[in-house]
Specification:
Chain A contains twelve helices and two strands. By secondary structure, chain A is mostly helical. Chain A has a two-stranded antiparallel ribbon with strand order 1-2. Chain B has helices at residues 7-35, 39-42, 59-65, 68-101, 108-117, 124-137, 144-155, 157-169, 173-180, 185-214, 217-222, 230-234, 237-241, 245-265, 267-274. The chains are: A mainly alpha, B mainly alpha.
């Protein structure tokens, strides 16, 4: 795009200047992510005592990853959370976008309202959840009773506590899937659909043969972004349930946080962090192939 | 796709939209409602409309805003989000310009872009431990400065991605004309490009502020007292005190309002930002 013809004087000048533009950001990231990552790797080879490095233990911290039942619990809780939230958010968000992808009044207001949950402080939503899911006369239970149901022990029952954190995440991120899908749907070439209609294609046929194939890369991208974010989940369970009751909502990040900053077992916490990084990176590697075409234009 | 909508369909669409909007707006209304209810009214069923069903009050807002810790937290959150967003946009805009206008080797531009994007993949809990140890070493624990630095780092992908796309969309002839008039590359950037991308730049800055304001894990790990921002104030306090709906309401509103207002101001660029530039919305 920026054809640098080195015979032009301004191009030669640019050759030196360009590093001044890019350099600071690159150095910044090196200092604040690559260096801490290396430091975490170093930390993971040591045992800690009273929050200070104690002694070199080799791969012992990584060995503990395989036998720690509480860590496995955290992984299981997180995986359940990721699978359930992302599935529901994808289906509901994309479905809603398909339904509302038409000329209608109030589209801008709808969009503005749908943006709100994306920026509602997650930890505040968890905190508000304590009152929303309040067992005696909380609004959610009141609604359930209005429809003839019985009170649900939201925060004192392990199963329902998981449902509660899942519901808040769904509230927060379904609009994201909706907005991105809607934006992508509206970017699809209208003439394709007109041609299909002229050829007598039914609504289902043009959805199956045109909409879905064209939307596939975007849907993969949304899936990737949502999964990566969902694996990081920390704020909502920390403020809504404190990981409880018991360890029913103690997600991976919360367990690692506690290992590091409550039990000051920094070496082991660092090893846990790397396991999470490996899991997330594998998912990204698996899914990224599917979405590469979207970023293709950047690679010119 | 653009087929005619039958009356039955429009009714279904109307109902779905109504339910969706109710679902999205209800928690906000609930928080607001509790913040203006007298304690006795929060336990009473059927108090949904102020003035008609209950007498609203501002006493909780006043009493919460007079708590020193909360004022300090609001101030800390403001410093952290302003500082982090400004740093992030400064570094990011320059990098965005470089990636949009110059070539870095054969596939350097694409690689750098991917590298910046990959910041969003890194789970924060992986780096929170080294940050904690490093900041302790530097005596920067419980200091807003450390949170400014970290939030600037984790919001840096937004300006890089959003603004490099915007700059690519500008015709390069504009800068070339300035070069002919004797402008340096730096002047071409500040006098020609910057004014043209200003709306996007401001929007990106606002998005970075919202993200920094909402950030919780680093804030929780690196602050103990004087540097605590709003999200940390909110976490967990009520578990020990018993739930007082009216205070929950005020604190939730105080924490959520700024990022939500920011989001509305930067609407046009949010899809682009959140999909890391892949969908323009």
């Amino acid at each position: 795009m920026a054809a640098t013809d080195s015979t032009k004087p301004q191009a030669r000048r640019a050759d030196r200047t360009k590093y001044w533009f890019l350099g600071p950001a690159v150095i910044w990231i090196l200092v604040f992510t690559i260096f801490p990552l290396l430091y975490a790797l170093y930390t993971s080879f040591f045992s800690f005592r009273f929050g200070r490095i104690n002694q070199f233990v080799g791969l012992a911290n990584f060995g503990r990853l395989f036998t720690d039942a509480n860590l496995h619990n955290g992984l299981r809780v997180t995986l359940t959370f990721v699978i359930v939230t992302v599935t529901i958010e994808m289906l509901a968000g994309f479905g809603l976008a398909l339904l509302l992808n038409r000329e209608m009044r109030g589209k801008n207001i709808l969009r503005a309202i749908m943006i709100l949950p994306l920026f509602a402080t997650p930890v505040a939503m968890g905190y508000l959840g304590i009152t929303l899911f309040y067992e005696i006369n909380g609004p959610v239970n009141e609604l359930i009773r209005a429809f003839g149901g019985t009170d649900i022990p939201w925060l004192s029952n392990p199963f329902w506590a998981q449902v509660a954190i899942i519901l808040i995440d769904i509230w927060q991120w379904t609009p994201f899937v909706f907005l991105v899908s809607l934006a992508a749907l509206q970017g699809l070439p209208a003439d394709l659909f007109e041609a299909a209609e002229v050829d007598g294609a039914s609504g289902w046929q043009s959805f199956r043969r045109i909409t879905l194939p064209l939307m596939t890369p975007v849907l993969w991208l949304i899936l990737l972004l949502r999964m990566v974010e969902a694996f990081k989940v920390f704020d909502i369970p920390t403020s809504l349930t404190l990981g409880g009751p018991g360890r029913a909502t103690e997600v991976y990040s919360l367990f690692t946080y506690r290992t590091a900053l409550r039990f000051f077992d920094h070496g082991y916490a660092a090893a846990q962090g790397f396991l999470l990084l490996v899991i997330v990176s594998l998912i990204v590697a698996l899914l990224f192939g599917q979405i590469r075409s979207i970023y293709q234009e950047e690679r010119g | 796709m653009r087929r005619k909508t039958s009356p039955v369909q429009s009714i279904i669409i109307g109902v779905v939209m109504f339910v969706a909007l109710l679902w999205v707006l209800f928690p906000f209304y609930w928080a607001f409602l509790n913040s203006i209810k007298k304690p006795a009214d929060t336990f009473r069923a059927g108090a949904w409309v102020p003035f008609l069903q209950f007498q609203p009050t501002l006493e909780h807002w006043i009493s919460e805003l007079s708590i020193i810790e909360i004022r300090q937290a609001l101030l800390n959150s403001t410093i952290i989000s302003l500082g982090a967003a400004t740093l992030s946009v400064l570094l990011g805009t320059a990098a965005a310009y470089a990636l949009a206008r110059f070539r870095f080797g054969k596939s350097g531009n694409a690689n750098f872009t991917t590298w910046f994007i990959s910041q969003r993949i890194l789970p924060p809990v992986v780096v929170v431990i080294p940050f904690f140890l490093i900041m302790r070493q530097l005596q920067l624990l419980d200091n807003v400065f450390s949170l400014v630095l970290l939030n600037a780092t984790f919001t840096l992908p937004f300006p890089v991605i959003i603004l490099s796309q915007m700059i690519r969309e500008l015709p390069q002839e504009l800068e070339e004309a300035a070069y002919v008039d004797g402008a340096t590359v730096f002047q071409g950037f500040t006098r020609v490009v910057l004014p043209l991308i200003l709306p996007g730049l401001v929007a990106t800055w606002i998005i970075c502020m919202a993200f920094s304001w909402n950030e919780f894990l680093f804030a929780l790990s690196l602050t103990t007292k004087s540097a605590i921002p709003m999200p940390v104030i909110i976490a967990g306090a009520e578990h020990t005190r018993g739930v007082q709906f009216w205070f929950v309401g005020v604190r939730v509103m105080l924490t959520m309002l700024p990022p939500i207002v920011f989001a509305l101001l930067a609407q046009r660029y949010i899809i682009r930002g959140l999909t890391l530039g892949a969908v323009k919305g």
